[in-house]
């Protein structure tokens, strides 16, 4: 089957004798499902399951084509316009492949890409170079992109040691608020702000270390989930519920989980 088969399927679903649910959808409602499908695709990729990746790619593609179909119905553009625009943009952003420019390193490619994007945004009369970072990104991912964009202007630390020093400063400020014996409601807002400052600075540590914080946190969360599930399994096999197990025994089981589970 060709991609056109999905387009035809969507047209039938949206047609007069199609599905009431599909006919009811709007760009905003489909956007929510698209985000969910992308996360499911990421899970499949991280699990190393090619069949799962194939299936989830299909779901993502379906929702992308569904969105394009909705905008075609409203008279804005069709999927060919999407393809043409993207090919034109990618060609323009690779002058070292499709033009006469030359680059020596991956870093050179990144710098040129950023320069071309700045030229595009200046033509679009954006108020800030940060405007290109979508407001709807998950907070950790958006913090990474915001700091990355800002750094490309030269507003950055000289090296990772400067960022680490800033982490210590932010951590001290957070601890100072936490140590207050009685906190007023406004202190709770300050606490949240200081905690956010710690997270934002740690995102910059990740950037300097060439680690994506979103991926790092996902992996650490998954590691915790696996170890906790292992501990639950041992407790269930002893015909008990986890709430009945003492803290001391849970600590021992946790260490057993750490020893027996490999980190992928």
Elements, N to C (H/E): HHHHHHHHHHHH
Number of strands: 0
How much helix is in the residues?
A: over 70%
Number of domains: 3
Tags for this entry?
264 residues, mainly alpha, Helix Hairpins, 3 domains, 12 helices, 0% strand
Q: Strands, helices and their partners?
A:
Layout: H1 3-14, H2 20-24, H3 27-47, H4 50-73, H5 79-92, H6 95-98, H7 106-123, H8 139-151, H9 160-178, H10 185-208, H11 213-237, H12 247-260
Helix pairs in contact: 1-4, 3-4, 8-10, 9-10, 11-12
Structural description of this entry:
With 264 residues, this protein is an all-alpha fold. The chain folds into 3 domains: 3-92, MazG-like (Helix Hairpins, Orthogonal Bundle); 126-211, Orthogonal Bundle (Helix Hairpins); 215-260. Helices cover 73% and strands 0% of the residues. It is built from 12 helices and no strands. The chain has helices at residues 3-14, 20-24, 27-47, 50-73, 79-92, 95-98, 106-123, 139-151, 160-178, 185-208, 213-237, 247-260. Helix 3 packs antiparallel against helix 4 and helix 9 packs antiparallel against helix 10. The relative contact order is 0.05. The mean pLDDT is 92.
């Amino acid at each position: 089957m060709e991609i056109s088969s999905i387009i035809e399927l969507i047209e039938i679903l949206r047609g007069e004798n199609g599905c009431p649910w599909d006919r009811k959808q709007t760009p905003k409602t489909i956007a929510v499902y698209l985000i969910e499908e992308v996360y499911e695709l990421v899970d499949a990729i991280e699990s190393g399951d090619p069949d799962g990746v194939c299936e989830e790619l299909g779901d993502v593609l379906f929702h992308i084509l569904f969105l394009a179909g909705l905008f075609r119905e409203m008279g804005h553009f069709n999927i060919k316009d999407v393809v043409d625009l993207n090919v034109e943009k990618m060609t323009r952003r690779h002058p070292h492949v499709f033009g006469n420019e030359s680059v020596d390193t991956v870093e050179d490619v990144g710098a040129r890409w950023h320069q071309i994007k700045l030229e595009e945004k200046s033509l679009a009369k954006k108020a800030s170079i940060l405007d290109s970072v979508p407001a709807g990104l998950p907070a950790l991912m958006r913090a990474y992109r915001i700091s990355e964009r800002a750094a490309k202007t030269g507003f950055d630390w000289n090296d990772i040691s400067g960022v680490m020093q800033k982490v210590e400063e932010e951590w001290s400020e957070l601890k100072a608020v936490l140590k207050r014996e009685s906190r007023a409601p406004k202190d709770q807002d300050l606490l949240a702000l200081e905690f956010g400052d710690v997270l934002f600075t740690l995102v910059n540590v990740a950037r300097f270390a060439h680690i994506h914080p979103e991926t790092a946190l996902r992996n650490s969360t998954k590691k915790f989930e696996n170890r906790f599930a292992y501990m639950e399994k041992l407790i269930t096999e002893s015909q008990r519920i986890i709430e009945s197990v003492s803290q001391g025994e849970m600590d021992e089981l946790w260490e057993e989980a750490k020893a027996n589970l490999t980190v992928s």
